[in-house]
Amino acid sequence: MRERAFYEQAVQGYLNAVDALDADRVLGFLAEDPMLVVEPAGMVLRGRAEVRGALAHLMGESAGMKHEVLRLIVDREQGGVAIELNYHDTPKAGGPTTILHDSTHLGFDADGKIQKIQFWLGHNTA
Q1: Cβ neighbours for 53, distance < 8 A, ≥ 6 positions apart
Q2: CA-wise closest residue to 13 among 98, 101, 112
Q3: Rounded mean pLDDT for each run of 10 residues along the chain, 126 residues in total
């Protein structure tokens, strides 16, 4: 069982990599066979290639992202975290910045890598 500080650092590192628009750096935080689930769209991606492709596509359309963590709930016994956050995205194509009130859940494997990323696309608060 890992300490809360491990999860706090892992979440911050993962979100910093996403905000840097660096899909390869994000992969460094992921397990060998990660899963990405996007709700309410019902999209489920499996494996490093699919997850990296989706992240690269999303990041390629963004001029800048910022994840503002509001709350972090750690479940040490299950090896996971729930994150309430505001997600800011400025599109490369122009237009206003989108701000979504969002929920992200990360599940970690025994090696401390992110096995599952699940996020709920919330409503635009901008």
Answers
A1: 45
A2: 112
A3: 96 98 96 94 94 94 96 97 96 92 96 96 74
